[in-house]
Design goal:
This protein is α/β, with parallel strands linked by helices. It contains eleven helices and twelve strands. Helix 1 packs across helix 4 and helix 5 packs across helix 11. This is LysR family transcriptional regulator.
């Protein structure tokens, strides 16, 4: 039994599918199956049962998955502590951010890192929350910013700040004195929303379910600029934090009404793999993000 086999098994256990785990790990399915067979042989026990929908953990498999997460987490912390003994902050760190958070923090993050750690190289990838999470799980990204919700158990996640959500509309659709709108009324409007891959859609669907109402967007779009352009063309309304649209709102190009009854908000989360040790550069990026989170002018306190 080795660490690579344990890591692979944890991903299989989480996804319930050899093919999906192989895709996440950038392995062929036969190669992943060989790792699983070697692990079962080493432990002399069956860990998985195949079903029509994928694989299911045996009782021994459930025990191993729980213990493996602890072992991998301890190993990652040990490797990170040893790495931290190196004082010079160098290397290359890959960071993934969703568009709304990227607008708020990317510029300040890069500016601070270039000032403090000139020998550190950083790559910023802007993508949907689902894609950022997959990038972390596959190892393509070192650090990611996500939104609270369906975050993998393989990821560490800590809150940075809270974003209140607003209905974004064409100015002609909003009265001069209107600042709030009830969620029930939001659901009755033609909505332009991201697809199910996006954390914001999941947040809206959850709120609609609790209200006993369907969420039926008239248009789906996964790019922030497309959502904004469609609303500007008066083709519908969308839901976003105000921080995503500082320029559009300040110039009156769009109008924002706070969603109430109930109020809607989401947490912006800092995330990385439990079982992947952070380099000294990665720790520097995380410390900088934590520091900057407290200075976000349009972000609400947790």
């Amino acid at each position: 039994m080795d660490i690579k086999q344990l890591r692979s098994f944890v991903h299989i256990a989480e996804l319930g599918s050899l093919s999906r785990a192989a895709e996440r790990l950038n392995l062929s399915q036969p190669a992943l199956s060989r790792q699983l067979n070697l692990l079962e042989e080493a432990l002399d026990t069956k860990l998985l049962e195949r079903t029509g929908r994928g694989v299911k953990l045996t009782e021994a498999g459930q025990m191993l998955a729980e213990r493996a997460r602890v072992i991998l987490g301890d190993l990652a912390r040990l490797e990170a502590d040893l790495s931290a003994r190196r004082s010079q902050v160098t290397g290359h760190v890959h960071v993934g951010v969703p568009p709304s958070a990227g607008i708020v923090i990317t510029g300040a993050l890069v500016e601070a890192l270039r000032d403090r750690f000139p020998d550190l190289n950083i790559s910023i990838a802007e993508d949907l929350t689902g894609d950022v999470q997959e990038g972390l799980l596959s190892g393509r990204l070192d650090i990611g910013i996500l939104h609270d919700g369906m975050i993998s158990r393989s990821l560490h996640a800590e809150p940075l700040w809270r974003e209140d959500l607003y209905l974004i509309s064409h100015p002609s659709r909003v009265g001069e004195q209107e600042t709030d709108i009830a969620f029930e009324d939001v659901l009755s409007l033609p909505l332009i929303m991201p697809t199910n891959k996006h954390g914001l859609r999941a947040k809206m669907q959850e709120a609609a379910f609790r209200a006993g109402r369907p969420l039926t967007p008239v248009v789906e779009a996964d790019a922030l600029r497309v959502l904004v352009d469609l609303v500007h063309r008066d083709l519908g309304h969308t839901v976003l934090p105000r921080s995503s649209l500082v320029m559009e709102l300040s110039t009156g190009r769009l109008r924002a009404r706070r969603i109430v009854s109930p109020e809607l908000s989401r947490k912006v989360m800092l995330s990385w793999l439990h079982d992947r040790p952070l380099s000294t550069g990665g720790k520097a990026v995380i410390d900088t993000l934590r520091e900057l989170a407290g200075t976000m002018p349009m972000a609400a306190e947790l």
